[in-house]
Amino acid sequence: MTVKIYVPRDAAALALGAEKVAKAIAQEIVARGLDAEIVRNGSRGMFWLEPLVEIEVTGKRIGYGPVKAMDVPALFDAGMLSGGGHPLCLGEVEDLPFLKEQTRLTFARCGITDPLSLGDYEAHGGLAGLRRAVSMTPVEIVKEVTDSGLRGRGGAGFPTGIKWKTVLDASGERKYIVCNADEGDSGTFADRMIMEGDPFVLIEGMAIAGLATGATKGFVYTRSEYPHAIAVMSEAIGIARQAGILGPSVLGSGRAFDIEVRTGAGAYVCGEETALLNSLEGKRGIVRAKPPLPAHKGLFDCPTVINNVISLASVPVIMERGAAFYRDFGMGRSRGTIPLQIAGNVRYGGLYETAFGLSLGDIVDRIGGGTRTGRPVKAVQVGGPLGAYFPRALFDTPFDYESFAAKDGLIGHAGIVVFDDTADMLKQARFAMEFCAVESCGKCTPCRIGSTRGVETVDKIARGIEPEKNRVLLGDLCNTMKFGSLCALGGFTPYPVMSAMTHFPEDFVPAPVVEAAE
Amino acid sequence: MTIHIAEGDIAARTRSIVADLRSLEGPLLPILHQVQQEFGYVPQQALPVIAEELNLSRAEVHGVMTFYHDYRDHPAGRHVLKLCRAEACQSMGGDALAERIKALLGIDFHQTTLDGSVTLEAVYCLGLCACAPSAMLDGEVYGRLDDQLATELVAEARR
Ligand SMILES: Cc1cc2nc3c(=O)[nH]c(=O)nc-3n(C[C@H](O)[C@H](O)[C@H](O)COP(=O)(O)O)c2cc1C
Ligand code: SF4
Ligand code: FES
């Protein structure tokens, strides 16, 4: 029987040499005349083990990693194809603690299947949610999603069902589903992994959203920094169309829905939903004032659902297993599972899907294994460039929307970036202001001008120029940005800046001034 | 090597790109992407053509083109090296790595080496944050860069 060898095609695996490994394996198969085939799967999300090669032996997946191309001949000599022993052998992949302790609902197939095989997708539970949705009325679908407690995973945490209901109730000849796949936050890669590793689940989720709201057209707006995701997504859409999942009659329902992929052009602010809509329309990515809500007047002034990739990709499992199944995971008002993205200076970096509620310390120290450099953890930034820096003292904060908000933080898209004790928090605060200045859409003054003034003020503190006065000024400026900005780019930049100053005051005391001698 | 593109040629090729894409809903970004793909940058002479074909003002097209970081108004080097400057990469020594690469190339960000081989750009996150610091060379991704890998990458880019 043909042996299946899995070598990921996920961009992070490729960044660590997966392509060379796949080539080396292909060569060995030919040279040794073996009956084996290479499957390019997505990633399991254990990036310290990538490239992670898996062999399917009697229904089990045995892993080897991290594999370098030069390891390949030795792996074949050691009998890799029958799960043979070798220092890189990890045993059964599903048994690795990092995977075993997860609750993978949205990422159930990611890393397991061939992302472009519909057969694989269905064999692993795919399309069951859409099939059920086809047999339901829009009101019933919306109710299921509402009851699941799913909140938007893009950052704001707005209940997805309520958003869908607004669009369903809105009158309009034409409605749209827009998938926000802009994923610009540092430390986040869940959207990318889904698009590269299980694109059909996103397509299925969008089709369900279409049936639920009466929208007939969907756009996936993603970033130019993600060429691999764009390629896989586009190909998957073509396959889905051929199979009648997309097109004039979704799964023979008589209801139409189709999807198009669009590429951004390198502007962080285009992740903000209204800026994204402007960009899709071919305009500058400037934020629109709300109201009107996109649900009423969105893309081309039509009622529009705009949801993050993970929000949409979580819908199929909700439709398949029912609202109650999903809602039973989590804590408080944060229901279901959240794909944590553990990144930065961390030993076991990767994607960890679990119910809400783990403590930050548990995530960083136990699951992430502390820093990669082996030094003490100093700070953890959660929620991307607009998220707060948390010190160890806040490690008991449970991972949910409300608990983080209560500590002046946010979970955002659940990106977790770890820094060791060499980090200079004043420098990080400066970067936050600088990033805001570079990426500001320019519509409002606090953000456009405030961020530049912010950089100057941090610089003055660093140089010991009236530090006390400038720390107060920086606080004032943050306050103005927080309350005077139209969108969260200007409005949330104070989170990283103020948290750095509050939790790490020692970094904001200038070293004895050298310039005094000048 | 400098490629001279005749002005009439730019207009004609731009017109054919617009013809291919104008039926899209909101076609301007896809058109600008395609123009940049075709010429390596968005030539000034392409803007009035796009404006005329889409029935937009020239100022509007200019405004859109200049808003986005991706579109260039002059050709890049033969290779484009993008280095991630965002937080996860910073946490793994991204700043020191950037300094090293700048020194190896002898240029700063947004510049092109004198021999025209490499343009260096800053990017803010490539989604490779769990294997930081990372870079992209002509669309190929590289993770966990250290001094040695960076040197190899620069050597490859200069070829
Ligand atoms: C500056 C800025 C950038 C954002 N970037 C993203 C992004 O990359 N992806 C995303 O899904 N949401 C992003 N958001 C949030 C969106 O505006 C919006 O809340 C989200 O797309 C709604 O989808 P959801 O309800 O499924 O979360 C951003 C918001 C702001 C203010
Ligand atoms: S806060 Fe900044 S990005 Fe947001 S609308 Fe105002 S200027 Fe634009
Ligand atoms: S922060 Fe550098 S790849 Fe994400």
Automatic annotation (TrEMBL), chain A:
Statement: the UniProt record of this protein carries the keyword Protein biosynthesis: no
Keywords, sorted A to Z: 4Fe-4S, Iron, Iron-sulfur, Metal-binding, Oxidoreductase
Span of domain NADH-ubiquinone oxidoreductase 51kDa subunit iron-sulphur binding: 426-471
Superkingdom to which the source organism belongs: Bacteria
Stored Pfam families: Complex1_51K, NADH_4Fe-4S
SUPFAM superfamilies named in the record: Nqo1 FMN-binding domain-like (SSF142019), Nqo1 middle domain-like (SSF142984), Nqo1C-terminal domain-like (SSF140490), Thioredoxin-like (SSF52833)
InterPro entries: NADH-UbQ_OxRdtase_51kDa_CS (IPR001949), Nuo51_FMN-bd (IPR011538), Nuo51_FMN-bd_sf (IPR037225), Nuop51_4Fe4S-bd (IPR019575), Nuop51_4Fe4S-bd_sf (IPR037207), Thioredoxin-like_sf (IPR036249)
Needed cofactors: [4Fe-4S] cluster; FMN
Keyword Aminoacyl-tRNA synthetase (UniProt): no
Function recorded in the entry: NDH-1 shuttles electrons from NADH, via FMN and iron-sulfur (Fe-S) centers, to quinones in the respiratory chain. The immediate electron acceptor for the enzyme in this species is believed to be ubiquinone. Couples the redox reaction to proton translocation (for every two electrons transferred, four hydrogen ions are translocated across the cytoplasmic membrane), and thus conserves the redox energy in a proton gradient.
UniProt-listed PANTHER family: NADH-QUINONE OXIDOREDUCTASE SUBUNIT F (PTHR43578:SF3)
Family membership: Belongs to the complex I 51 kDa subunit family.
Protein's UniProt name: Formate dehydrogenase, beta subunit protein
Gene field: fdsB
TrEMBL record, chain B:
Transmembrane segments: none
Pfam family, one: 2Fe-2S_thioredx
Gene3D superfamilies: Glutaredoxin, NADH-quinone oxidoreductase subunit E
EC number: 1.2.1.2
Single GO MF descriptor: oxidoreductase activity
Family: Belongs to the complex I 24 kDa subunit family.
Protein name: Formate dehydrogenase, gamma subunit protein
